Amino acid sequence: MQEKKLLGKRKRIALVAHDHKKIDLLEWAVHNKTSLAKHELIATGTTGRLLEEKLDRPVKKLLSGPLGGDQQIGAMIANGEIDMVFFFWDPMQAQPHDSDVKALLRLCVAWNLPMACDRATADFIMTSPFMHEEYEAALPDYSGYLNRSISDHE
User: Fold this and answer.
1) CA dihedral sign of residues 104, 76, 87, 17
2) pLDDT of the chain along its 154 residues, tens only?
3) 70: annotated active-site residue
4) Residue 6: strand pairing partners
5) How far apart are alpha carbons 114 and 12 in whole angstroms?
């Protein structure tokens, strides 16, 4: 039997945006202000401060992404403390912390979290009926990986 993770009606949502995508995320968040008000918001550095101002509601602010905020979100994902991620990242500009960005995106997939990296996908997630009710997400079974044999020659 596959293990499940229950996402409550009130979701824990991580919001992240690269500098060139902050305006896009802020406009999207203001457009979805009423829906977002029903959920707990967590954000990295400057994005969190800007969201708090624009939405006029508290946002749990972590470190700036390049200073460890992406890794903080990654740890929260691994600990089951985040239900979904909206990460508006800039595909046209290399980031000094690209490895952290890739790790964060990998964790979302590894833990089967809904994730949006652009406005259209974010809109689809926000308008899903699952956004407004409890949802049972299947957790991947990593027991084979965790119990694998490790030899000294690998």
Assistant:
1) negative
2) 678 999 999 999 999 998 889 999 999 999 999 999 999 999 999 999 999 999 999 999 999 888 889 899 999 999 999 999 999 987 766 665 577 778 888 999 999 999 999 999 999 999 999 999 999 999 888 888 888 888 765 5
3) yes
4) 136
5) 11
| Annotated active-site residue in 24, 70, 100, 118 | 70
CA 11 to chain CA mean position, Å:
11
- Report how far residue 147's alpha carbon sits from residue 142's, in angstroms, rounded to the nearest whole number: 9
Neighbour tally for 50: CB within 10 Å: 19
Distance between CA atoms of 130 and 151, rounded to whole angstroms?
44
The two structure tokens encoding residue 71: 């890794």
Tokens 């990295």 correspond to 44
